[in-house]
């Protein structure tokens, strides 16, 4: 069954979850897509590494995502109202501050194939101090025990790699050449491409070198079906009617709908309606890593 949410009401009802020590709340976590909101302050030293991608959108305030790209640390500053797509296999460490709220979308990991890593570096260097690989089911609940293990470790005490630094070989290496794009204002992007949305019906926000399909849908009707992936629909402007397996849902601005995998659905927008559609099909992963096989 498709699940509708009015975002502002949901955030207000769960505002206590965005404060320390929790700082996050899952909006959708039982299925293939993981959609959650994160608050602050939460300034951290650990880096997260995964094969899948992450969509960031800053609803309130600005954050900084520290990344490791091409052997150097790089800050990705995401301002309020901006959207950013983080490629897979890039170590990243989100730094969130007080009075900030942001949405993050990622997908479930393919069982027995995809593993996450939590990694610490020696000081300001890129030398690995300590890391743990694990199969991620619920990142919010799994990170705490791993972080505690690090702070209890000899490596943390000495700030030097030791016998406990590595418990298994790495499941994959960070992408050595991929460069991130800059975050951009979602509203400004929509304004710039409004005529295309009205005439063509849809437009990609990110090209096909990414795994994730993030589309803006404009005036008109669109029928869709993905047998493997859920679809997250986010109404930005105007309204939208979505029929899912015979059920009709009406989306107003700032409401969302999660469409189950393998469901045939039709979305219809009148003039002025703009919907963001996000799907993360694990079979599209190869198009993002083709350069690593050359």
Automatic annotation (TrEMBL):
<keyword id="KW-0963">Cytoplasm</keyword>
<feature type="binding site">
    <location>
        <position position="48"/>
    </location>
    <ligand>
        <name>Fe cation</name>
    </ligand>
</feature>
<keyword id="KW-0408">Iron</keyword>
<feature type="binding site">
    <location>
        <position position="106"/>
    </location>
    <ligand>
        <name>substrate</name>
    </ligand>
</feature>
<dbReference type="GO" id="GO:0006569">
    <property type="term" value="P:L-tryptophan catabolic process"/>
</dbReference>
<feature type="binding site">
    <location>
        <position position="44"/>
    </location>
    <ligand>
        <name>O2</name>
    </ligand>
</feature>
<keyword id="KW-0223">Dioxygenase</keyword>
<dbReference type="InterPro" id="IPR011051">
    <property type="entry name" value="RmlC_Cupin_sf"/>
</dbReference>
<comment type="function">
    <text>Catalyzes the oxidative ring opening of 3-hydroxyanthranilate to 2-amino-3-carboxymuconate semialdehyde, which spontaneously cyclizes to quinolinate.</text>
</comment>
<dbReference type="GO" id="GO:0034354">
    <property type="term" value="P:'de novo' NAD+ biosynthetic process from L-tryptophan"/>
</dbReference>
<feature type="region of interest" description="Domain B">
    <location>
        <begin position="168"/>
        <end position="294"/>
    </location>
</feature>
<feature type="binding site">
    <location>
        <position position="92"/>
    </location>
    <ligand>
        <name>Fe cation</name>
    </ligand>
</feature>
<dbReference type="GO" id="GO:0043420">
    <property type="term" value="P:anthranilate metabolic process"/>
</dbReference>
<feature type="binding site">
    <location>
        <position position="96"/>
    </location>
    <ligand>
        <name>substrate</name>
    </ligand>
</feature>
<dbReference type="GO" id="GO:0005737">
    <property type="term" value="C:cytoplasm"/>
</dbReference>
<dbReference type="GO" id="GO:0008198">
    <property type="term" value="F:ferrous iron binding"/>
</dbReference>
<feature type="region of interest" description="Domain A (catalytic)">
    <location>
        <begin position="1"/>
        <end position="168"/>
    </location>
</feature>
<keyword id="KW-0560">Oxidoreductase</keyword>
<comment type="similarity">
    <text>Belongs to the 3-HAO family.</text>
</comment>
<feature type="binding site">
    <location>
        <position position="54"/>
    </location>
    <ligand>
        <name>Fe cation</name>
    </ligand>
</feature>
<feature type="binding site">
    <location>
        <position position="54"/>
    </location>
    <ligand>
        <name>substrate</name>
    </ligand>
</feature>
<dbReference type="InterPro" id="IPR014710">
    <property type="entry name" value="RmlC-like_jellyroll"/>
</dbReference>
<dbReference type="Pfam" id="PF06052">
    <property type="entry name" value="3-HAO"/>
</dbReference>
<comment type="pathway">
    <text>Cofactor biosynthesis; NAD(+) biosynthesis; quinolinate from L-kynurenine: step 3/3.</text>
</comment>
<dbReference type="GO" id="GO:0000334">
    <property type="term" value="F:3-hydroxyanthranilate 3,4-dioxygenase activity"/>
</dbReference>
<keyword id="KW-0662">Pyridine nucleotide biosynthesis</keyword>
<keyword id="KW-0479">Metal-binding</keyword>
<dbReference type="GO" id="GO:0019805">
    <property type="term" value="P:quinolinate biosynthetic process"/>
</dbReference>
<protein>
    <recommendedName>
        <fullName>3-hydroxyanthranilate 3,4-dioxygenase</fullName>
        <ecNumber>1.13.11.6</ecNumber>
    </recommendedName>
</protein>
<dbReference type="InterPro" id="IPR010329">
    <property type="entry name" value="3hydroanth_dOase"/>
</dbReference>
């Amino acid at each position: 069954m498709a699940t509708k949410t009015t975002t502002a009401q949901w955030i207000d009802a769960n505002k206590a979850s965005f404060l320390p020590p929790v700082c996050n709340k899952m909006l959708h976590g039982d299925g293939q897509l993981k959609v959650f909101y994160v608050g602050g302050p939460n300034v951290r030293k650990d880096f997260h590494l995964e094969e899948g991608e992450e969509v960031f959108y800053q609803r309130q305030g600005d954050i900084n995502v520290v990344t490791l790209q091409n052997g150097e640390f790089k800050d990705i500053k995401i301002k309020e109202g901006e959207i950013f797509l983080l490629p897979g296999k890039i170590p990243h460490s989100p730094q969130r501050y007080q009075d900030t709220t942001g949405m993050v979308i990622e997908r479930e990991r393919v069982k027995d194939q995809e593993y996450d890593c939590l990694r610490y570096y020696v000081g300001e260097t890129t030398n690995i101090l300590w890391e743990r690989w694990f199969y991620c089911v619920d990142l919010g609940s799994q990170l705490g025990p791993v972080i505690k293990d690090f702070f209890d470790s000899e490596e943390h005490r000495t700030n030097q790699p030791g016998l406990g630094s590595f418990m298994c070989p790495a499941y994959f290496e960070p992408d050595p050449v991929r460069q991130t794009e800059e975050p951009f204002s979602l509203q400004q992007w929509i304004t710039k491409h409004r005529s295309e949305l009205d005439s063509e019906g849809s437009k990609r926000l990110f090209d096909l070198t990414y795994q994730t399909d993030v589309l803006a849908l404009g005036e008109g009707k669109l029928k869709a079906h993905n047998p493997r992936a859920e679809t997250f629909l986010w109404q930005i402007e105007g309204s939208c009617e979505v029929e899912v397996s015979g059920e009709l849902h009406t989306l107003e601005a700032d409401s969302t709908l999660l469409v189950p995998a393998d469901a045939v659905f039709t979305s219809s927008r009148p003039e002025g309606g703009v919907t963001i559609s996000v799907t993360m099909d694990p079979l599209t992963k190869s198009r993002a890593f083709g350069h690593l096989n050359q």
